[in-house]
Description:
alpha/beta, 8-stranded mixed β-sheet, 8 strands
Amino acid sequence: HARRVVSNHHKLTAKLHAQKDKEGVAEELRKQLEENGGIVAYQEASALSTNAHSTSKWVLKKLRTLGFTHPPNAKEPLPRVLEIGAINTQLLDSKSVDVRAIDIHSIHPGRIEEIDFMDLEQPKVPYDVLVLSMVLNCVPDASGRGAMLRKLRQTMRPGGLLFFVLPLTCLQHSHTVDETTMLEALAAVGLRAVELEGDENPRKSPKLWFAVLEAVDPDQ
């Protein structure tokens, strides 16, 4: 059921963006979104799906593999992580990372800050790691998505990592973007896929597209 709610929300939102100039059609799609439960139902369903297929476990495993985290007794500073669009507290609960979690509609207001990433001030100290799962696909227009990609890179230190997840359907059924053009857009702002020993990157599940990207000079 949770996957169906998430899938329906993505499909209806995509149709709404495509029909935004046709008010009668757009109004009907907005009605269907509300009948589907709106943003609250979408977030709750996403949280259930994430619990079953944990993005946080993937992030923490790769951080260990790439040497970003250390054993508890090591006297090393914790990597600073910004989780954008957080729908649960799994990363916040980890003792191996120092996490700031944000979402535009927080369902854990005591722990996840309710703020739009695009409204965040530039950090005085860039982050070591960003996590962006199922967020870029919610930005309605190409210029907004481009602005978000640029801000992601500006928020990270050189050599920092971005853990990036999209619904696979966004790359398989779009008329304007596929996996190759997405990687090109990321590289254009200075985010390059990391080579992971013994693991494909990017990789796909039946429903999702996962990528680990390193912050580099856009000209590299």
